[in-house]
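Okay, can you check this protein?
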Amino acid sequence: MDSFERQEQRLNAAPERRPRVRKNVTAAIAADICSERYPAGSALPRENDLCDIYGVSRTVIRESLKILESKGLVRGKPRIGTTVCDKDDWNILDQDVLEWMGPYIAEFDILGCILEARRTIEPVAAEYAAERATAQEIADLDRAWRQMRDSGDDPEGFTEADVTFHTVLLSASHNQVFRRLSSAIHAGLKYALHASNVAVDSRDEAIAVHGDLVEALRLRNRTAARDCAHRMLNLAARDLAIAEKAIRQAEKNKT
């Protein structure tokens, strides 16, 4: 068999060895780590084997492993290889990591942690925004709220507008740390909001309280703004509990 035939045979076999074809090999390896195909403490396959599994060159694999190591998912050691790190070592405030964890995020108890973080930050951010938000920022919040209101039965569109609303709210606090946190938890916030948005039959209460918050900011009413944020978070906690129950039930049905 000549080299061309061997290469053709390898290319034809590669898709069967991969669980599915993905465009981004870094995300592909990360997803396999998050799904525990490669559990914490285990060694990743050798470079050559990873090339076969993901259908890319050694250069691509090495670059991907460098990225994963920079984010705390793996650790490489000379003559030992690359080992999957414990989940406690992962940089869960990194947007890429949160996105990779997305489908498995319920297993990491991140949804509850994100809600706790929001309870700490958002009421204060809303209060600051009532005092500091520019007219443009209030207009942007109003636009996001109207998009939520007009999304109808489109949970994806509703979630996108919801994420925009909360991102603008933190930015409108004009607190640099809050702004950075908004960027850091964006992916997790999107997943958490989507989980809660699809768990309920009606989003009317959420739409109403978001509208109340926009009005509180227009009136520069700090107390009302903070109260609206607490009401939003109470709704989020209720809806998230429904979502987590549905996730657990779905997992139980699989077994």
